[in-house]
Amino acid sequence: MDLDTAATANPPSARLINLAIADLSIYIALLPPTLWITWKHGKTGMVCWPIFVSYFGLRFAADIYQVIKRHEPQQYNEVIIMTNAGSLACLSLVLIGLVYEANMILPLPPKSRTEKIILGVTHLANTGGIAVATYGGSPDPTKPSGVVAENYNQIGNCLMLFVMFTICWWMWPTWRRITSVPAHPNFPAARFLLYAAGAAMPFHLVRLAYNTTYAFLRVPGLDPVLGSFATRLILLFFMQLGVALAAVAGGWFSRNVVPRSQLSGDDLVLKPRDSASSGATDEENAGVLENGVSLRRLAGTDVTPALQVRRSI
User: Fold this and answer.
1) Closest CA relative to residue 128, chosen from 109, 152, 110, 104
2) Strand partners, 270
3) What residues form the membrane-spanning segments (predicted)?
4) Residue 212: which of 245, 246, 235 has the closest Cα?
5) Which pLDDT tens digits describe the chain residue by residue (313 residues)?
6) Cα torsion for 171, 175, 295, 251, to the nearest 10°?
7) Using only C-alpha atoms, what is the Rg of the chain?
8) Pick from 218, 222, 246: nearest CA to 233
């Protein structure tokens, strides 16, 4: 469907309105656990979960706008363009944040900046890609392609796809790091975060591949706004929901992540309770960590002999 047709397009069908209502209802139901997950992860998940919450706001805006304007012809406007672009950008950043958090809650080599460099480069590239694609793909009836700059649209979408391929590569060294420290208190959380990123990635790659395909082959049925209902249902609704559900599941199962401030100097065990303030014995402080995890189970050794030596001295 071209831009001239869009000017005389019919109002959205009842199926599209029902899809928008279903989308809105699902994200309303997912918002409370997402807010709780964001609070539980705290500072450790700052580059992931607050961005995920903002994605919910964009979905609410898009769905509510669709329902309110259900009697008006479907056409491109600022709200649709910005919510579509923002939703795509947020989900990409969430996937980057999941892998980054999985790395940062585990022991890092001294003076290691690799993770922060990867985070910065991928964030910059993804933001640049979505900006270029949004500008280039904006409707312009005066251009033969129907968009402002077809080449910019193609370059931007390819850049976003390349960023996700980079994150797929990053998952492998992240998995090796996780499996190398099975006794670490954050081992389960890091594993679930990476599981979530791995489960969400196929959905997001399909979503990005669809956008990239449409940037090169402007098939009317693939238009994200004026295209077929199947396109909206399968390539937009299901793909985005798949990423969101995987992220919520990963965040829920990793909610007990231990902040780095509570880890000991070697980042392998938690600091014991202060015996002076808690009234606990040396044995209790040595055997129980702040989150209730046994030091013997984490370290794989018995600390009682060490305590006996200290007491004898």
Assistant:
1) 152
2) 263
3) 16-39, 46-68, 80-105, 117-134, 154-172, 192-210, 230-253
4) 235
5) 444 444 446 889 999 999 999 999 999 999 999 999 999 999 999 999 999 999 999 999 999 999 999 999 888 888 999 999 999 999 999 999 999 999 999 987 766 789 999 999 999 999 999 999 999 999 888 888 888 999 999 999 999 999 999 999 999 999 999 999 998 999 999 999 999 999 999 999 999 999 999 999 989 899 998 889 999 999 999 999 999 999 999 999 999 998 877 776 555 443 433 333 344 444 434 333 433 344 334 444 444 444 343 344 4
6) 40
7) 24
8) 222
In sequence order, which ranges of the chain are alpha helices (DSSP H)? Answer: 3-7, 14-41, 49-68, 78-104, 114-136, 150-179, 187-216, 229-230, 239-253, 275-278, 282-287, 295-299, 304-312
How many other CB atoms are there within 10 angstroms of residue 74's CB atom? 20
CB 220 within 8 A of CB 227: yes
Residue range 3-259 forms a domain whose CATH class is mainly alpha
Scan for tokens 């649709």, then name that residue: 80
Sign of CA dihedral 36, 39, 41, 46: positive
Residue whose token pair is 């009842």: 14
Residue tagged 């790091």 (tokens): 177
Identify residue 208 by its one-letter amino acid code: L
Q: Is the dihedral of CA 149, 150, 156, 157 positive or negative?
A: positive
Write down the domain spans for the chain.
Answer: 3-259, 275-312
**Tokens, residue 175:** 């998995």
d(CA 17, CA 169): 39
81, 99, 88, 76: which is closest to 207 by C-alpha? 88
Contact call for residues 157 and 133 (beta carbons, < 8 A):
yes
